[in-house]
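hiii so my PI (J.) wants the whole complex modelled not just the main chain, which honestly fair. so below is everything: two entries, each one labled with what it is. i double checked the lines twice but i was tired so who knows lol
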Amino acid sequence: DTAVSQTPKYLVTQMGNDKSIKCEQNLGHDTMYWYKQDSKKFLKIMFSYNNKELIINETVPNRFSPKSPDKAHLNLHINSLELGDSAVYFCASSQDPGRQETQYFGPGTRLLVL
Amino acid sequence: GESVGLHLPTLSVQEGDNSIINCAYSNSASDYFIWYKQESGKGPQFIIDIRSNMDKRQGQRVTVLLNKTVKHLSLQIAATQPGDSAVYFCAENSGYSTLTFGKGTMLLVSP
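here's the output for the full assembly
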């Protein structure tokens, strides 16, 4: 009965590879997000999707491409991985994209680029 | 306070003490605030929220105080337990669908 789930939990890969992280929420929410948490624990929004439509795209390299096949899923594909991409990536969801909406987070995907 | 190098601001307390974690937010237009708890190896977990038309909100063992004049938020945890040990983040709703997170404070509770 996990609310927001992500796979894989750990991902170790070589520089230059392409990888994907998957996220699913069973909360019936309309909005999903990707966040990046760096080694100093700083959390920053990357993308936000509402009902499969992109609504926020922060300053993220275009090597990162989110894809939402339906409103319960938001996947993150990363091309040409770089050392600096090593971080923990969190998916989150909320009922609506508006203000004053609580966001619920997944368990994270720990990406290590060698 | 500000984090230094790789180290988060840390609050160390004894079990049973009350804990107060502080947060300064940046945007005076923010109207919604959330406290999250992040345990090691897990995602941020919602604790309590407060809207800008309130200055205090209480939950079970937790209280959030909001001072809009000085843009300050605090989380009070009563009778702190070892299971409360985690990193705590404040987050402000600074725009449509956007949460901006603070730097985090590590709470260490010793038995």
